[in-house]
Amino acid sequence: MFVDSNPPLLHHYGALLHHPSNDSIPQCHENHITEECQLPLIDLDGLKSLDRLECSRAICRASSEWGFFQVVNHGISPELIKKMRREQMKLFSVPFEKKQTSGLLNNSYRYGTPTATHPTQFSWSEAFHIPVTKISEQACYGEFTSLREVMEEFAAAMSKLAKVLATVLVNNLGNQKEDLEDICESSSCFLRLNRYPACPFSPEMFGLVPHTDSDFLTILCQDQVGGLQLMKDSKWVAVKPNPDALIVNIGDLFQAWSNDVYKSVEHKVMANEKTERYSIAYFLCPSYDSLIGSCSSRESSIYRKFTFGEYRNQIQQDVKKLGHKVGLSRFLL
């Protein structure tokens, strides 16, 4: 008996895609790809050498000019990444009903965009979005006992890397009023396992709709299928996969905290017509009651102070009411 592991995206989106009031999928995307880009590539071995200052400057420059960069010699072994990918693929291969109903990984399974009413809001993907605090809990894993040990090791390595990068970015700002480590603890961070199934409709379908990340910092480990695109100089550019690199991007909170020195850049993932895609993201987040304000004691803040919980609630309200995230502009002074 064949049991499908894919979520029912075709069933849920099919009627909306073919509704007379909806445009064809290619017309849903206003921005067309004009080029493939190579993100700034930073060798983190430079942080351990006499080149530390130049390496730090490169990280900060990329965070200001691109909002994205990629790192090599990041301290996470290829063997650990391979083990994590094998476990991830094994997890996503189980029947859809089991993923949805068995409470795996703190009942964190999600798929598609439940609130979508138009093709521009569709995400052709599935994910487990798990709090780091739950990764060590044996009850989360059921029969997937080997996944727990690998996820613990992987999350710890990502957390260590995130703190190194955040420290570089904070130190560059100078004269900060508070330490980022005081509000970003590993207990408030998340690990997200993503799968983007092959999409039968069109290579123009979103795997993940255009958005900015709502955290301080995101570290992405992706496969070589490609599909990640970001907004650069008012146009979408495709990110060329690098098998040796992890991708890092600035989130909304770091943009607000740095008073717009660092940029949280809109990005998306395009579905592939023939090939599935996998990625793993680590999100550096504060607790929900953490107050986000400008780190500078010399300059006037661009944004009013807000808590992370307040920010998340506003995003959820906007998505429910408008169908999309508004983000930082809601909090401008």
Written overview of the protein:
This protein is α+β, with helices and mostly antiparallel strands and 333 residues long. The protein has one domain: B-lactam Antibiotic, Isopenicillin N Synthase, Chain (Jelly Rolls), CATH 2.60.120.330. Helix content is 29%, strand content 21%. It contains 8 helices and 15 strands. The strands form 3 sheets. It has an 8-stranded mixed β-sheet. Strands 1-10-9-12-7 form a 5-stranded mixed β-sheet, with no helix packed on it. Strands 14-15 form a two-stranded antiparallel ribbon. The longest helix is centred in the middle third of the chain and has 29 residues. The termini are far apart. About 2% of the residues have low confidence. Belongs to the iron/ascorbate-dependent oxidoreductase family. GA2OX subfamily. Pfam families: 2OG-FeII_Oxy, DIOX_N. This is gibberellin 2beta-dioxygenase.
Topology (SSEs and partners):
Layout: H1 9-17, E1 36-37, E2 41-43, H2 52-65, E3 68-72, H3 78-92, H4 96-101, H5 104-107, E4 109-111, E5 126-131, H6 145-173, E6 190-196, E7 206-211, E8 217-222, E9 228-232, E10 235-239, E11 246-250, H7 252-257, E12 267-270, E13 277-284, E14 291-292, E15 306-307, H8 308-322
Parallel strand pairs: 1-10, 2-3
Antiparallel strand pairs: 3-11, 4-5, 5-6, 6-13, 7-12, 8-11, 8-13, 9-10, 9-12, 14-15
Helix pairs in contact: 2-6, 3-6
Catalytic activity: gibberellin A1 + 2-oxoglutarate + O2 = gibberellin A8 + succinate + CO2
Pfam family, one: DIOX_N
Protein name: gibberellin 2beta-dioxygenase
